[in-house]
Amino acid sequence: MSVRQGLFAMTLASVLALVISPASSQTLRYANQGDLKSLDPYSLNESTTHAHLGHVYQGLTARDKDLKIIPALAESWETPEPTRWRFHLRKGVKFHNGDPFTADDVVFSADRVRNKNSNMQTRLAPNVKVVKVDDYTVDFILPSPNPILHSAWDVWYIMDKKWAEENKAVEPTPVSATSPSYASLHENGTGPFIIESHQPGVKTVFKANPNYWGKMEGNLKEIIFTPIASDATRVAALLSGEVDVIEPVPIQDISRVDSSSNAQVLKAPELRTIFIGFDQTRDELLYSNIKGKNPFKDVRVREAFYKAIDIELIKTRVMRGLSTPSALMIAPELFALSKDFTRPKLDPDGAKKLLTEAGYPDGFEVTMDCPNDRYVNDAAICQAVVGMLARIGVKINLLAQPKAQYFAKVLKQGGYQTSFYMLGWTPSTMDSHNVMYDIMGCRNDPKSSRGEANLGGYCNKEFDAITDKVLVETDTAKRNQLIKQAYEISIKDWAYIPLHQQALAWGVSKKVNLPQRADNLVMFHWATKQE
Amino acid sequence: MLAFTLRRAVQAIGVMFAVGIIAFSMFRFAGDPVNQIVSIDTSAAEREAVRKSLGLDDPVPVQFVRYFADAAQFKFGVSYQFRQPVSTLLMERMPATLELAICATVLAMVFGILMGVYSALRRDTVLAKLFQAVSLIGISLPTFLIGILLIYLFAVILGWLPSFGRGEVVKLGWWTTGLLTLSGLKALIMPSITLGLFQMTLIMRLVRAEMLEVLRTDYIRFARARGLTTRAIHFGHALKNTLIPVITVAGLQFGSVIAFSIITETVFQWPGMGLLFVQAVQNVDIPIMAAYLLMVSLIFVTINLVVDILYTVVDPRLRSTFGRAV
């Protein structure tokens, strides 16, 4: 007996001895659901990657905490003519290896970002000429005016020409490459942090850049990033104090984190709009019991669907209060006149009447395509929609699939194989034109990229004409009026059912002060941590 | 003996080939990898170019032949997500998985045998009944639940052990080990228990049953009659004869420990091959998925082969049978 007790005591003692050592001051540990796959800033157009690399690389412009465009590597810019933008570069900036930053690097980055292997080609149109005026001045010459040329440049990161040439990284790594390029495993930016070590999928260590040209607002000396894919483990790591920041916090764990003594959840509406779309082009739906005609071509059917969906119920029951119902296809933060729009009221009886008028008194059957691992509670939202439409007699067969299968089916490459679907969209330019062109524009011209993500094929020529005017209108007030006009047309057409903006949820230790940006980019140069 | 080994090796290649065919045809249904590579606002023309550059446009038989020709030379292609050769990625992740699997197996063997022997010899004590109860938990609770419970108790509530990762690792050539640092050892405790609990239960029950069986045999009675000490009878004779099936099972289970580490690695964010595989499945990273499946089947086939050969070493009676059969 005594031997056993002794053994037990020893075991206990040795376990107790293994108490976690406290994290050192100003080292911030961060866990995200996703990986940092490549350090090449042009290899993946995805917001988590942009956020990570935004610590080491910088663009000509940046966005502040409220998403306002502010100078970064360019000190200022002007448009002497509507088709010519002149950028004045910041002097005295050095890349991490000591190379000076000049106009040559901007011209080089402009070529590289438009290279065929780049995943960021949308940042700069191929017909824009980039001309070096002197070492610290660059002109962008456009074929036609574009008031939002620089709107997505905060994540078009500038690379060092000399470094790229020395390390054979002039082109981004092609997808079919058999070995990673130097730039995908090393960085050389101008930003406030330097990547000290990078093990893809395991751990990345950022150290503060002692020679940073600007003044860093935060006080961090080191950031240690680990991907933690499992929701429960990520939350446990935050609660136990092993990491200071996690993104995202799963909805069901938010109250658990908020009730803990050492962490809290930062919440805000995200810029992504979740919406529902209809197939409005085919003469007969692919997945429906109505043969010979397409019920969604009838505007009354679309209106009925819209009015049957109880968005407040989705908000309170499915999203646990963490969503902002939306009247537009763009987040209110991104369109100045969005206050002029309100969501039509829920009206199941009116919806039923509309269906009867349209010739479907007993409703009909249609399949709904829905991802189940892409957006917050995506499959649950679709299930709720199924129930709500059942009340007006429409029978929805729900096909909720993982994103890999879902996108393969519904996108252009899959032949837009859907009759009724749910999708989310964040305009990469933070501007309405992207929404109007990519997801609401007609897709009948095979030579144009207009409407490529318009899975249901909504088409209104009048709408498209306004979209084209919006592209070249440089007067902000006039431009906003045009956008408003376009949205009014699409609402009259009941083109889409916008649902909501889902909420951002970052789990943050109470020792850390971190501003939350609505585009979900976790930026640590603003973060402070106290011991 | 040589002929036997050769024949088994040929069979092993056949098994590998079959696994390859099944795996390859499964990937047809895994989704379109191009969607995982590019962002949603990428134009259709760009997507087409990516598709072409990956060779996904070729007919399926062409892709299949190309894949096997490369695999035979240990070329598994480049990961779509990481743009790194799959073999490099697997080699980087292998030490983590093997270290975890070995620790779990050692843990399972040591505690399984000790608990098994104890509950066979002192069947009616409280402790023996407790062991039986624990073994029931080990058999019935799913791995991920055990992992999450351990994390909740030891990391969140007590704060003794880290909830994720490998801690600090030391590089020894291409091998990385967490066994040489305190944080590495701490990080190893919970994943090893989670992964090894099922094997431990299995071994404990096996040892207990075998031990009870052996204790009833004639030679034990004879040993008793000769007046040998209890200790000599139990550990010198009974336990030794119990261990043969235990070693067989533990050996065969080592393969499944590696394969099942997928779940444990996901729960603990253990940077091993299993985690790499799960991430690959989510991102339709076909090169990694294919290489992993082939590698796991190689491990299984190799272990089986080794166990078969070891049988003949351990039990000379089997040797003649094989000799005749060949």
TrEMBL record, chain A:
Record-annotated Solute-binding protein family domain positions: 68-445
Cellular component per GO, a single term: ATP-binding cassette (ABC) transporter complex
Name listed for the protein in its UniProt record: ABC transporter substrate-binding protein
InterPro entries noted in UniProt: Peptide/Ni-bd (IPR030678), SBP_5 (IPR039424), SBP_5_dom (IPR000914)
Gene Ontology molecular function terms on file: peptide transmembrane transporter activity
Signal peptide: 1-25
Biological processes annotated in GO: peptide transport
CDD domains: PBP2_NikA_DppA_OppA_like_2
The UniProt record lists the keyword Calcium: no
Family of the protein in this entry: Belongs to the bacterial solute-binding protein 5 family.
From TrEMBL, chain B:
GO cellular component entries: plasma membrane
Topological category with respect to the lipid bilayer: Multi-pass membrane protein
Predominant place of localization: membrane
Transmembrane segments: 12-30, 98-121, 133-161, 173-198, 243-268, 288-314
UniProt keyword list: Cell membrane, Membrane, Transmembrane, Transmembrane helix, Transport
Keyword Transmembrane: yes
Domain of life, per lineage: Bacteria
Compartments, record wording: Cell membrane
Pfam families the UniProt entry points to: BPD_transp_1, BPD_transp_1_N
SUPFAM superfamilies (alphabetical): MetI-like
Residues annotated as domain ABC transmembrane type-1: 94-311
Example of a GO biological process term: transmembrane transport
Cross-referenced InterPro entries: BPD_transp_1_N, MetI-like, MetI-like_sf
Family: Belongs to the binding-protein-dependent transport system permease family.
Record PANTHER family: ABC TRANSPORTER PERMEASE PROTEIN, DIPEPTIDE TRANSPORT SYSTEM PERMEASE PROTEIN DPPB-RELATED
Protein name: ABC transporter permease
Source organism of the structure: Bradyrhizobium hipponense
Source species taxonomy: Bacteria, Pseudomonadati, Pseudomonadota, Alphaproteobacteria, Hyphomicrobiales
